[in-house]
Amino acid sequence: MERRAIGELVTRISYHHDLLFRISSIKQDRAILHGEDIRLEADAPLKDLVTVEERDLEKRRKKEKEQEEFSYRLFRQDYQLMKEKRDYQSTDGYQYADYFQIPAKVLHLDGDPTYLRKCISLYQRLGLQVHGVHLNEKEMPFHISSLIEKIQPDIIVITGHDAFSKSKGTKNDIRAYRHSKYFGETVREARKLVPHLDQLVIFAGACQSHFESLIRAGANFASSPHRINIHALDPVYIAAKIAYTPFMEKVNVWDALRNTMTGEKGMGGVETKGLLRTGLPYLTEDDEESSESTNVE
Q1: Which pTM value belongs to this model?
Q2: Contact 280, 97 (CB under 8 A)
Q3: DSSP summary character for residue 55
Q4: Sheet containing strand 41-45, strands side by side
Q5: Are 13 and 52 in contact (CB under 8 A)?
Q6: Sign of the dihedral through C-alpha 240, 259, 233, 164
Q7: Hey, where are the domains in the chain?
Q8: Which residues of 143-165 are buried (b: 16+ CB within 10 A; e: fewer)?
Q9: Which of 128, 134, 141, 250 could make an SS bond with 185 (beta carbons 3.0 to 4.6 A apart)?
Q10: Looking at the domain 61-279, which fold is it?
Q11: 15: Cβ–Cβ under 8 A, 6 or more apart, which residues?
């Protein structure tokens, strides 16, 4: 049997090489696998794994990059429309004025350090302020309260890896999921500090997560209604839609989902108010100096 190494990229013979995985750990003759592009955790016998050839890897990554760029362009189009609307409203439609905005702050908890780095890169590309924390999914409920008190976020993303196992129970049984229980506990701990859904917006879940329990726990958005896999970057687009929507407007659930790569089968949620606040006037450094030097007689 061919030897395997942690971090190696592989596919599964029994699943017809459908998904690309990284080997996370090896225990005797089995490997724990983490999806390279989707938030799925699985295990498989070592004999079921095949190393991905460089040519195939390049094809997979090229296709994945094209999909990610397509979603990014869709969001940028959506963002531009929202910006034009804000500009019109902030200037009464005719009167020119400079304005400033108070951006939403995101706290992103991720069970996968590789995904966390990818997500932070996308947050920065989208112009969002983010504080990323890598935590094992089982540890998240014990740290969320102190993180909220320290960072004072407007949006929390609670994600990592998950999976539903038929051998452990039905789809309604929370015990049949790898990490849905811990995601739910983390949401409940957060809601003890900030109960209101519009004061703190929460996304929770990963691939195949128990959607209903996460929504009941207090998440605004969650995965996965149809127990399908979700893309690693999809939670970022949910957070960005909320962050760039004015606080006097509600975010329609479908509008939040349509820029994601997974869509309504992989994610859902409840109507939520936007978090972007706009103010007037915007003062430049010259304006501030002028104000400070003005004498009132």
Answers
A1: 0.80
A2: yes
A3: H
A4: 41-45, 30-35, 21-27, 9-12, 49-51
A5: no
A6: positive
A7: 9-52, 61-279
A8: ebeebbeeeebbbbbbbbbbbbe
A9: 141
A10: Rossmann fold (3.40.50)
A11: none
